[in-house]
Amino acid sequence: MHIKLNDVTFTYSKRRRNKPLAGPFVLQHLGLSVESGEMLAIAGKSGSGKSTFLQLLKGFLAPSEGTVELDATDPHLSRRPQVFDRVGFIFQYPEHQLFSTTVFEDIAFGLQSAKLTAEEKEVKVRAAMEAVQLDYEQFKDRSPFELSGGEKRRVAIAGVVVLEPEVLILDEPTAGLDLQSRTSLFDLLHSMNRQRGMTVMWVSHQLEEILEHASRLIALKEGQFLADGHPTDLLSDPLLLEAFGWEEPPALAVTRLLRKLGSVPSNEILSPQEAADTITKLLSSRQISV
Amino acid sequence: MIDIRNATFYYNEPDEEDEDAGHKPALSHVSLNIPFGEFVAFLGRNGSGKSSLSRLLNGIELPTEGTVLVEGHNTSERSSLPAIRRAVQIVFQNPENQQVGITVGEDIAFGLSNIGWPQEEIASRIAWAIQLVGLEADEERPVSNLSGGEKQKLALASVLALAPRCLILDEATSMLDPVARRQFVETLHEVRKQVPFTLIYITHHLEEVTGADRWVLFRSGEIIAEGTPAKLEQDTVLLENCGLELPYYHRLAGLLRQQGISVPADMNEQKLRDLLCT
Amino acid sequence: MSGKSFLLYQKRNSWLERWDPRMKILAVLLFGAALLLTHSPELKTAQLLILIALWGVAKLSWRVLVFTLLSLSLFFASTMIYQALLVTSAGDVMITWGPLHFSRPGAIKGIMMCEQIAGIVLLLSLLVRTTSPILLAEGLEILLKPLKKWRLPVHEAVMMFSIALRFLPILMEEFDKIRKAQLARGGGFHRKGITSRFSGVLPMLMPLFVMSILRAKDLAVAMESRCYQGDEGRTPIRIYRFRLSDYAVFTFSLANLLFIFVW
């Protein structure tokens, strides 16, 4: 699905007739085009308008000015809000929204309007659980409340994935998870991105996470896009880093340093292991030449 | 000041009639001694017992077996709870769930009025606490107007007003963005220079506790390792098992040391440059 | 974000905020009694107008006032109809509409009932919107102190009340989030109403319930950690000293009540 924002401005204050739009503006003149299959990270402080921006994409809010287009149609203007159904939205701490007595029922909740037979339902829930790497037989009858934090979150994600969205939007999906759960969550997002061509857009505070997983980064500040591009470029841009008070991720700094010394292929970010190997090689070759 | 002796803790008392193997303790046979003034980090995966232990330390939860002593007071004795609560204060993860007051001043006053401070002294203490954490807000400011970072600083001010001997931060930075997080941690260490206290820091982020005196690693309700960061940093497998990842430069430095290359302890970009360009 | 300013005390530095909470509570009781006891439509209207004027003095938003009254409109309408239909004698009939007879005294009675309801609601909103919950709680506690002699848990009840007030906006925000999240899961919010989309209210109430419990538990732990142990040895946050304005408010409310009887 192709997502396009044309000069979108948003304010919570109501529009008065024949008067210019009144502030305060949460979002101002946003333009954006997202192709299907992108892994797009969104960064910005709390209060920068991130959450409002995401809600526009799901149609929870309508732009005060400008348009949001999904596959070249404006769902608000053309009165086809069902287009927003193709966007999946996962709030922060989605496990708080679980309510059913079994994992199966919770995941199947979104399917009840679709008039499916029991078998069709089962096939879909099974596929969704597979997508989030939860064993169907093992988990389907368990109560979601007795699962671990990481498992609960996967159940909640499955509840959205079961609707087969073409775009998946997640608000800080790794908040509160430990290293292992974070890693497996991103494995999952990558595999859905690859296998189904699903666009994944997520809000993140962790620059390392963005660098490792995003193919594109949008940096939002005070309701405006300050930057839009490849994370490698943006996160080593001193001006941008300063504007956000960020520190350059060490992996980028080290890679840049070693590349300057002429020993790293371009378009590659070094892991600590690779960096250590490169440095060792560099130092030993020097010793030989001396 | 804190002495935990062979403490075992179940969130629900084990049922005598059906003692199935499925019921696991949140902590089993934990012993730990923390002297006054130490900066200790409790580390481990979600549900490894680190938060449960922190709750035993001020008597919110009581050990099912074993004893927890805080400055000689046993937490299981009801009469000593007021003294223990005054000595041990906690800042929690979600600032919204720990604020009682509507304004900054009211919130800081809450603890002080609970322990019966005279009103005039409460007023001056509020001003002191606000200044201590560098909160740019007067005491009349409504809590709802504060940003996430400011709310957490207020939580810090509110507990520091009680002059605790020991402060526990239970994932206190996890809901903050990186800039607010850095400011919070800086503030904390500034404050520690002015008023000494034992600091117990619970986190998933090792970069916040590289300056700790001691790391305590939890796994499935047990302490599986403890020692100085310098010592534990070398065991990356152990750290990974506990859901922890060393900061990039620490990992790089460790790997280089294995290759016999001497690197400075606190490596950064500049130091790496010096190493490579000399 | 938008729901936050609603329903709760916000600092506006108005004159009403500086009144002593104990006096305010007493004044609300006295004024409320007067409003209920008077049988004169003129007096009821006058009292309602005073309350509306106070709303302005308290620097509260007029939109909130209108909204508050509108939210009661259905209630007003049913009261009016009910009262108007109670015909006491045949001579009172004002309008006949099919089998229904509307009477003039009935209509006046209806208006007075509506004024009463509106007045009480305004009184309470004025109290809650101009008094910080902690002050309100402490004020209530001081006033209810005599009840402690009979071992009634005054302090605990008051504390619960004040915390419930504080958590209201947070819960409203939470509810909005849950609603959106479940809508996102249910496939879309554009199809006919929420209730027809969801079988029952369980998907909304269950998470809200769980969240409230979790939050309440967190808050209880945080309060306990900060040495909270009921009212034992607790100092009130403010020093309560009546000022001239407080006496004036009290005198006015009392005079108002007495005036009703004399009238």
Topology:
The complex is a heterotrimer of chains A (290), B (278) and C (263).
Chain A (H helix, E strand, L loop, with lengths): L2 E9 L13 E10 L4 E5 L6 H9 L6 E6 L16 E4 L12 H6 L9 H14 L4 H4 L9 H13 L5 E5 L7 H18 L2 E5 L3 H7 L2 E6 L2 E6 L1 H4 L3 H7 L5 H11 L11 H18 L1
Parallel strand pairs in A: 3-7, 3-8, 5-6, 6-7
Antiparallel strand pairs in A: 1-2, 1-4, 8-9
Chain B lengths: L1 E8 L17 E8 L4 E5 L6 H8 L7 E6 L2 E2 L6 H7 E4 L12 H11 L4 H14 L15 H13 L5 E5 L7 H17 L3 E6 L10 E6 L2 E6 L1 H4 L3 H6 L6 H11 L10 H9 L1
Parallel strand pairs in B: 3-8, 3-9, 6-7, 7-8
Antiparallel strand pairs in B: 1-2, 1-4, 4-5, 9-10
Chain C lengths: L20 H17 L3 H17 L4 H10 L1 H13 L7 E5 L2 E4 H27 L2 H11 L10 H32 L8 H4 L4 H24 L18 H19 L1
Q: Using the coordinates shown, work out and report the CATH topology of the largest domain in chain A.
A: Rossmann fold
Strand content of chain C: under 5%
Give the SSE string of chain A.
Answer: EEEHEEHHHHEHEHEEHHHH
Total beta strands of chain C: 2
Distance between the termini of chain A: 59 Å
**Strand arrangement, largest sheet of chain C?**
1-2
Q: Which regions of chain A have little confidence, pLDDT < 50, spanning 5+ residues?
A: none
Helix content estimate of chain C: 55-70%
Please report the distance between the alpha carbons of the first and last residues of chain C: 48 Å
**Strand count of chain A:** 9
Radius of gyration of chain A: 22 Å
The global form of chain A is globular
Q: What is the averaged pLDDT score of chain C?
A: 79
**The CATH C-level class name of the largest domain in chain A:** Alpha Beta
| SS summary, helix count of chain A | 11
Number of domains of chain C: 2
Integer-rounded radius of gyration of chain C: 23 Å
Structure, explained:
The complex is a heterotrimer of chains A (290), B (278) and C (263). Chain A has helices spanning 50-58, 103-108, 118-131, 136-139, 149-161, 179-196, 207-213, 231-234, 238-244, 250-260, 272-289, and strands spanning 3-11, 25-34, 39-43, 65-70, 87-90, 167-171, 199-203, 216-221, 224-229. Chain A has 290 residues and is of the alpha/beta class. In chain A, strand 8 (216-221) and strand 9 form a beta hairpin. The mean pLDDT of chain A is 89. Chain B has a single domain (2-246), classed as Rossmann fold (3-Layer(aba) Sandwich). In chain B, helix 6 (178-194) links the parallel strand 7 (166-170) and strand 8. In chain B, 48% of the residues are buried. Chain C is mostly helical and 263 residues long. In chain C, helix 7 crosses helix 9. Chain C starts with 20 loop residues before the first helix and ends with a helix. At the A-B interface, helix 6, helix 10 and helix 11 of A face helix 6, helix 9 and helix 10 of B. Chain A: Pfam families: ABC_tran. Chain A: It is found in: Cell membrane. Chain A: This is Energy-coupling factor transporter ATPase. Chain A: It is a peripheral membrane protein.
